Amino acid sequence: MEKQYRELLIGFYENELTNNILPFWLENCEDKENGGYFNCFTNDGSELVSRDKYTWSQGRFLWLFSRLAMMERPFTKSQRARFLELARSGKEFLVKHCFLEGSPRRCVFLMDEKGTPKYAEGFDVLDMSIYADGFVLAGLCRYALAAGDRESWDLAKPLYESIMERYETFNYRTLPYPISPEYEMHGFYMSRVLHSCDITVAAQVFDPEYAKISRDRLKHSVDLLLEMFVDDQDVLREVVFRGGGRVPGIFGNHCNPGHICEEMWFIQHAAELLGSSSYTQRCGRILKKALSLGWDSKCGGLLHFCSSEGGEPVAGTEDPEQETVYQQLMAGWGDKLWWVHSEALYATLLFGERTDDQELRQWYDRIFEYTFRVFPNPDREVREWVQIMDRQGNPQNKVVALPVKDPFHITRNLIYILQFLYTLG
Known about the structure:
This protein is mainly alpha-helical. It has helices at residues 3-28, 55-69, 77-97, 130-147, 150-169, 186-206, 208-229, 249-253, 257-274, 280-294, 323-332, 338-355, 358-374, 408-423, and strands spanning 40-41, 48-50, 53-54, 110-111, 117-118, 183-185, 239-241, 254-255, 306-307, 336-337, 388-389. The N and C termini lie close together (9 Å).
């Protein structure tokens, strides 16, 4: 990458992070009375509709503020101290309230603003999602590094062991994405890769001997994911039968382009921790395949879900127990989502450089043009992106997964884009 172009990108992304994304959250997310963070805003950011706190999002905020506190550029010392203080508030809130019955090995799914656990509507179990546990783990690992906080590490390690044990024994719940026990979802396996990256980075500082164990688990998780979900045409499907094997109908024949973009950079980060370059070229091919299948040739942008042959997912004879998932796929396949495009920005930039692939560089340019034409909020009082668009790129006032406005994907990818660009200098 030419120096002048790199400097232009750095300036652009530093401005996006510091002047468009962070101001909204620094002003609106902090619960100064109870600790933790608010983010149940409408899609356009104009109204806080609930003061409830989803553990999933609380862990994400903890990771973000901890990671921001570790960035020497583009922030001042006082700004980094502010981020660390915000992270401390989230860490203390989670440690006090999120663990099920005081156990550091399982997390509740939902809390009220004071931290009292709540049942999700229609359920009578508090620990409804292993994904919530995973984001608490990520937040604790990163805060341990940012603050030099041994307590966070001592909580993260048994939580990681619990998560991995539950994945191995299939003893977990997955709200807001319930799935039949006969299926395996790509999301479970990409989470295992991410969790093993998180714990390995922290263990290298706090417990080097344990880092050897987590690094072995990381490699196993990467290899297992690629073996189970990717075919010989580099297509990564979202659902397979437990133990492997193609699932008929829309479940087995659909792809999630955003997940694939995200997963590929997960694996590249894992490869760097493993000291291996053996995954890079294959991941670049899988990424290009996902982009070609998921790009909306009619309206532009990446589809939320697509067929493994490209375009609209094709319905067939479906499992009636999966009606909720089926309806989500068919109703929202053409939506254009903020997180999908932020993941694609980082993935194409990273792999375009790592593989020296001109096609991926062209994909980056195409995704950049669409993303920054469609998602930035036209209301300059808000600035943070409008997160959910219809197929034509018009704002939709609805939710995806959780009823929250979530800065995680945008901010995380801006951080990683900047860190990558800085290293190219």
